[in-house]
User: Fold this.
Amino acid sequence: MERQIVVTFVSNYINHHQLPFCVAMNDMENVEFHFVQTSPMEQKRLEMGWGVDTKDYPFVTLFYEEEEKARGLILDSDVTILGWSDGVIADIEKTRLSSGKLTFRLSERIYREGQWKFISPKGLMRKYQEHIKYRKKPVYLLCAGAYVASDFELINSYPGKKYKWGYFPQRQAESSFTKSEKIGPLDTINICWAGRLIDLKHPEFAIEAARRLRDKNYSFHMDIIGDGDKREELISLIDRYGLGDIVTLRGAMKPAEVSAYMEKADIFLFTSNYLEGWGAVVNEAMQSGCAVVASFEAGAVPFLIMDEINGLTYNNGSFERFFDKVLYLFENRDKIREFGNRAKDTICSRWNAENGAREFVRFAREYLDGKEPQPSPEGPMSIAPILTPPGFFRTLQEKNRLE
Assistant:
């Protein structure tokens, strides 16, 4: 019988993107799981529906209320995952990373706005203290995004120890809404876009695509879910193009409400640029059986979508390439269900919280048992490839700033 191992996941706060993995870990046999939350969630994120009532989950320890207990969990657990803590526990992290105990760093990109920024001497010194100095320790990198490995390869950290990771959507209950297996030439196609209405997510791509589809006399309805700085601009575009009867701005919604729209959608549009660290709506739309048209620059996409197999991708943030992919689905309607069904299988068979927890624990046990831990063949805990992110000239085409 396997011995019990203690696993502690540390991050600034638990949210609905992390919660499914935490619950799955807590349900694993012979695993004592803890989540240490280092800070209260900001009011803005609570208003966006990201909040989790920690009292509902006994495995959560609040660092700012039980510091001594939290410190002990971080330092003494068999396995510790260090996520985002905004420097609150920097000294404790250093002690854990230096200890020789099995530790994982969970990270999105560190050079999202451009890899040339790595040349900053001050930045390199900080990266040395946080990452490079532990390169010979049993510290592994969980890459929450397809271009994360490239950033860390640039600073020569975690050599041979970078693995695919990400966020896992909550498993959806069986929907009472059943999508038809075929979409005929006269059927109305339902399109969904969801996210904050900000520059890096390019919601205007969806409006422009709607205009062109309307001009080609296709029957469709588009729902745009979210709120943000570009809302008034989008309202103006919809009015100017006369799209009010076929494009609806739904405003901000709670995650469960967004899922209901995804369930009814045939096509989901994901138009974020390279500044998108992951993009959990992609997981959620795929799980809902949508045919996803997505920017290959965004963090989740190269891990989740294989072009023309379980969805469609476009490069370089090009609207023309994006629209060509959307048009392809209207001209080849049988592909909508084909891609959607394969997308759902991708999430249900590999990129889900239960499989992520299972593969993580397997990997950790192999190390703790004195073996060379083996990567998964695909999905979470498989080897993260070194993919080249968009370069300097591409960033000149965008408002190159995080929002």
